[in-house]
């Protein structure tokens, strides 16, 4: 299907340029008319020159009218295009709202929202807390308060959650410092509505590379002192967030180890893989949302929009995994990878064992054959020797 793209700013600029051209032509025509009327000499030459100047002024006036008509056409075209787009968008919005209402009224969705995850939260509560946490420093602070008063969580879990909120706030402040510490923007960072620039040539892979580059310090001579401090705060917050994810996973797996559900080695392996999957999933989803916005022509978006998109995507993955396997996405993938590794290792062990048994059997068979051959040769030599000595000595 062909796509028609209208650049409103370009059309407005062209219309304004035409208006400026029209005014300039009008000024030139008026000037020429004044010159023709103010000739100081008389005679045939004067009349001829005045006539030519008048004709030139008339020609320029016609060009002025043409420029005015072009400007009006551009303005009308813009208006009609926009009216048509608004009408289409209105119909599309109505259809989208109806589709959303149908989804919301779906009993299966209600059942899924009411289901609980492994930590005891309903999926609706999990989505709500995740979205609140994307409202900048204020949202992360609110989540920290909720975690402190959650009676279902242990002291260790509260420490990890509150520390994660603190690390998130530190990263936000670091981002504000890196952007220039503009006082007018501090509220945007506190609420999560600060704009994030999205280059037009952003692809998934470039966005993913940028996500992992946030774990490395910048060393540019052009950076101000505040930007350098902000960069170090942001990078430190990234690494600290990963360590806290590791700590939270370690606590959960230790509980499983204490209850006898898994071995100590399995607990360590799950902690490592779950952390890697969790951090990697966040980076992949963020890159996907960013690249998707770039593909739509979006050159900047509030941090809240990008973060909210990641929360929704990961929440959807968790919903599916919780309802099918009773575990969130990270734990499901981690267990799958470890189970696959154990199956491969067991299969390799059996293969090596079978090979060793086969080799032993081959060696035994060869040994038996060699022994029999040597015995036959020995018997033959002895018989020949007996025959020879019997013949020689009678």
Structural notes for this entry:
The termini are far apart. The protein has twelve helices and two strands, in the order αααααααβαααβαα. With 394 residues, it is mostly helical. The chain has helices at 8-37, 44-104, 107-114, 123-132, 136-148, 155-178, 186-191, 204-213, 225-258, 264-295, 303-325, 329-393; strands at 195-197, 300-302. The model has no long low-confidence stretch (mean pLDDT 78). Helix 10 (264-295) crosses helix 12 (329-393). The radius of gyration is 40 Å and the shape is elongated. It has a two-stranded antiparallel sheet.
What is the tally of helical segments?
12
Tell me the total number of β-strands: 2
Rounded radius of gyration (Å): 40 Å
Which strands sit side by side, in order, in the main sheet? Answer: 1-2
| Main sheet makeup | 2 strands, antiparallel
Given the helix and strand composition, which structural class is it?
mainly alpha
Mean pLDDT: 78
Oligomer: single chain
Key features of this structure:
2 strands; 394 residues; two-stranded antiparallel sheet; mainly alpha
Helix and strand topology:
Layout: H1 8-37, H2 44-104, H3 107-114, H4 123-132, H5 136-148, H6 155-178, H7 186-191, E1 195-197, H8 204-213, H9 225-258, H10 264-295, E2 300-302, H11 303-325, H12 329-393
Antiparallel strand pairs: 1-2
Helix pairs in contact: 1-2, 4-11, 5-6, 6-9, 8-10, 9-10, 10-11, 10-12
């Amino acid at each position: 299907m062909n796509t028609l793209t209208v650049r409103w700013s370009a059309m407005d600029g062209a219309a304004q340029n035409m208006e400026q051209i029209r005014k300039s032509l009008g000024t030139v025509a008026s000037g020429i008319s004044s010159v023709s009327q103010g000739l100081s000499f008389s005679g045939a030459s004067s009349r001829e020159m005045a006539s030519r100047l008048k004709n030139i002024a008339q020609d320029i006036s016609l060009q002025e009218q043409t420029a005015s008509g072009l400007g009006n056409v551009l303005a009308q075209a813009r208006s009609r295009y926009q009216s048509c787009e608004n009408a289409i968008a209105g119909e599309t919005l109505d259809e989208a709202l109806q589709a959303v209402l149908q989804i919301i009224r779906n009993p299966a969705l209600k059942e899924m929202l009411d289901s609980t995850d492994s930590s005891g939260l309903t999926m609706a509560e999990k989505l709500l807390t995740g979205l609140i946490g994307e409202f900048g420093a204020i949202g992360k602070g609110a989540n920290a308060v909720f975690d402190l008063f959650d009676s279902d969580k242990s002291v260790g879990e509260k420490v990890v959650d509150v520390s994660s909120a603190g690390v998130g706030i530190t990263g936000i402040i670091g981002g504000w410092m890196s952007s220039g510490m503009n006082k007018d923007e501090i509220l945007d960072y506190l609420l999560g509505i600060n704009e994030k620039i999205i280059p037009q040539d952003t692809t998934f892979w470039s966005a993913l590379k940028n996500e992992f580059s946030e774990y490395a310090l910048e060393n540019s001579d052009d950076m101000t002192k505040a930007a350098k401090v902000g960069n170090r705060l942001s990078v430190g917050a990234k690494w600290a967030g990963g360590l806290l994810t590791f700590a939270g996973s370690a606590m959960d797996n230790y509980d499983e180890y204490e209850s006898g559900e898994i071995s100590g080695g399995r607990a360590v392996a799950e902690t490592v893989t779950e952390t890697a999957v969790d951090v990697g999933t966040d980076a992949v989803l963020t890159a996907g949302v960013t690249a998707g916005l770039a593909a739509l022509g979006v050159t900047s978006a509030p941090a809240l929009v990008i973060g909210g998109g990641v929360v929704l995507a990961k929440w959807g993955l968790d919903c599916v995994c919780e309802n099918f396997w009773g575990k969130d996405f990270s734990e499901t993938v981690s267990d799958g990878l470890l189970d696959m590794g154990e199956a491969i290792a067991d299969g390799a062990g059996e293969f090596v064992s079978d090979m060793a048994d086969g080799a032993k059997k081959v060696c035994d068979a060869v040994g038996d054959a060699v022994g029999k051959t040597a015995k036959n040769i020995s018997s033959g030599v002895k018989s020949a020797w007996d025959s020879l000595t019997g013949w020689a000595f009678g």
